[in-house]
Specification:
By secondary structure, the protein is α+β, with helices and mostly antiparallel strands. The chain has helices at about 10-20, 55-60, 100-110, 115-120; strands at about 1-10, 20-30, 30-40, 40-45, 45-50, 65-75, 80-90, 135-150. The protein has a single domain, classed as Electron Transport, Fmn-binding Protein, Chain A (Pnp Oxidase, Chain A, Roll). About 20% of the residues lie in helices and about 45% in strands.
């Protein structure tokens, strides 16, 4: 049995992103990487997601260069992997960004579990005056992908 590794063209990468909802988001602060699982909805070159205050959000606010990894596994043992180099954009509940925030929500709310990872924290959050919910997007600056297929 051999494994054939091939590049995935950008069009196929975008199709995978449009059909997947789970990935791993990498961010970096002061040379230290951090990876977190996220649910997302992809549309028009942006991966939309939701989070609460915490390390990931603090780091993305401090360094907007991020990376999203999305993977599809095949029943026969192969896989497809897409890596997005991107830029973090926050969509606060303000007049200037309201339409983007509502667009993110409209895409995400199509799925019953869109909020689960983003709303869970291992400890209680302090009481805040406003809503702690943060919608954001990862704007694609580059995309690449690979596929591994097992053959006899």
């Amino acid at each position: 049995m051999t494994i054939k590794l091939t590049e995935i063209n950008p069009g196929e990468c975008y199709r995978i992103l449009e059909n997947e909802r789970f990935g791993h988001l990498a961010c970096c602060m002061n040379g230290q990487p951090y990876v977190a699982a996220i649910y997302f909805a992809f549309s028009s070159g942006v991966a939309y997601s939701f989070t609460m205050p915490g390390k990931k959000l603090d780091w993305m606010r401090g360094n907007d260069k991020v990376c999203l990894h999305v993977e599809q596994r095949a029943a026969a043992g192969g896989w497809k992997s897409v890596v997005v180099d991107g830029r973090f954009e926050e969509f606060p509940d303000s007049d200037a960004r309201r339409s983007e925030r509502l667009h993110a929500w409209s895409l995400l709310q199509k799925y019953s579990d869109w909020w689960e990872i983003g709303s869970m924290k291992p400890h209680e959050l302090p009481t805040l005056e406003g809503s702690p919910h943060v919608f954001y997007g990862i704007v694609v600056t580059a995309v690449s992908g690979r596929s591994a297929i097992r053959s006899e």
